[in-house]
Amino acid sequence: MKFLNLTPHSLSIETRDGRMITVPPSGQIARLAVTREARPVFVIGGDVFAVSQPKMGAITGLPDPQAGIIFICSALVAEQAKRTDVFGVGELIRDTAGAVIGARGLCSYAEVVA
After folding, report:
1. Are 75 and 107 in contact (CB under 8 A)?
2. Residue 112 in this model has a pLDDT that exceeds 90
3. Which stretches does DSSP call E strand in 45-110?
4. CA-CA distances (angstroms) from residue 105 to 21, 41, 56, 58?
5. Biggest CA-to-CA distance, the chain
6. Is the model's pLDDT at 18 over the cut of 70?
7. Model confidence over 24-55: pLDDT tens digits?
8. Count of CA atoms in the C-beta half-sphere (13 A) of 79
């Protein structure tokens, strides 16, 4: 199996035995189209904030399934795709300053029947 990173940045993923592997970006990005519907403004202490309600649309940039390829993308794309070959990153790993330095494994949103 081979990973294809469909995000715009390198991903550091921890294996079950504690090793970190780095998956470079592929140059192709999978995204979820989003439209926003305006909602009433929100006011706090005289400051006025625009509010919108996002509506998730179609996935773009996600290739069709390919033998031997695991696609890694954003959680939003993986959740919408619900495919067994599409994953998001697992629980985030942070350094002492709180910056993300990697992820513990992968996250699947596919419904797998045992």
Report:
1. yes
2. no
3. 47-60, 69-72, 86-94, 100-108
4. 10, 40, 26, 26
5. 57
6. yes
7. 999 999 999 999 999 989 899 989 999 999 99
8. 8
8 in Cβ contact with 29 (< 8 Å):
yes
Q: What is the pLDDT of residue 50?
A: 93
Lookup: tokens for 82 = 């619900």
CB of 6 closer than 8 Å to CB of 77 = yes
The pTM of this model reads: 0.84
Burial class (CB in 10 A: 0-12, 13-18, 19+), 3: middle
SS3 18: coil
Q: Is residue 71 scored above 60 in pLDDT?
A: yes
Amino acid at the residue 97: A
For tokens 């939003």, what's the residue? 76
